[in-house]
Amino acid sequence: MPASYAYLGPEGTFTEVALRTLPEAATRELVPVVSVPAALDAVRNGEAEAAFVPIENSVEGGITTTLDELVAGAPLMIYREVLLSITFALLVRPGTKLSEIKTVTAHPAAQPQVRNWLRTHLPDALWESAASNADGARLVQEGRYDAAFAGEFAAAKYGLEPLESGIHDAENAQTRFVLVGRPARPAAPTGADKTSVVIWQRDDHPGALLELLQEFAVRGVNLMLLQSRPTGEGIGNYCFAIDAEGHISDRRVGEALMGLKRVCPQVRFLGSYPRAEVDPKDVRAPRAGTSDSEFSAASDWLARCQDGRF
């Protein structure tokens, strides 16, 4: 497997900035590709060791392209996550005035994060989506658009200048990125971990989703993300992407996943990995009755009952 990481390019994306915060990025060839599917396919095809892609932002939630690509196709696994604070700059060719901007571009995920600013300052500008924010900057450089929303750091790369900086509709906006590779044994638990899965309902009936979520609730597993995605098999057919606190090796998490496997037609494990920017000492203790030691004690009690030793 080549020692390279594919990421959503071209150079100058927020994805590249986030990727370079990983220590291991310094020892890998970083390869920009045109889309999230292309990055993940590079891993599936053996052209890259891992892919680094956006998966969620704090304004609009899950990045559907990434979720859908992880749901379909050959299985992949998440190994790391990175949180990056996001603010945009309006990048233009030198000398461009705000009044001269008639067309703007950026990645589709950027639009909800600058919508109010755009409505206030450029209400008549035509928005068109680009493959990435940096690609939008490249298109401005080529003269195809008047301005692009991107990271200010991309200006020098594409010979542009920031006409406005610090643009964001929501304070403290963040995007979550993940490092994705081929399936392997998850890293050892750190005490501050997250487990990601996708589950499918066996059939649609009142309380069907509640029954699935109870597998987590009765074992004291907190959910951090729940997002429905269409299966492509007709209106009303959905699967559910879930992020849960804890590691698959934690008894409460492992037993919740076993419970889901019993009642779901399909469960796709997407990985157990360290939570970004969370210190294990700050993680709350499991609820009473859900720690590994309490699961072990209950298992021992059952064994004694079965042997007549109670």
Could you please describe the fold and organization of this structure?
This protein is an alpha/beta fold. The protein is 28% helix and 30% strand. The chain has helices at 14-19, 36-44, 64-71, 111-121, 133-141, 154-157, 208-217, 251-263, 292-307; strands at 4-8, 29-33, 50-57, 61-62, 77-85, 88-92, 103-106, 126-129, 147-150, 161-167, 174-181, 193-200, 223-230, 238-245, 267-274. The strands form three sheets. Strands 1, 2, 3, 4, 5 and 11 form a six-stranded mixed beta sheet that branches. Strands 8-7-9-6-10 form a five-stranded mixed beta sheet. A four-stranded antiparallel beta sheet has the order 13-14-12-15, with helices on both faces. The chain is elongated and about 85 Å long. The termini are far apart. The relative contact order is 0.15.
**Number of DSSP strand runs:** 15
* Strand residues, percent: 25-35%
Name the helix and strand elements from N-terminus to C-terminus, one letter apiece: EHEHEEHEEEHEHEHEEEHEEHEH
Low-confidence stretches: none
The count of helical stretches stands at: 9
Q: Give a quick account of the main beta sheet: strands, pairing sense, barrel closure.
A: 6 strands, mixed
The overall average pLDDT, rounded, is 94
Task: Give the C-alpha Rg.
Answer: 22 Å
- From the spread of the alpha carbons, the general shape counts as elongated
What structural class is derived from the secondary structure elements? alpha/beta
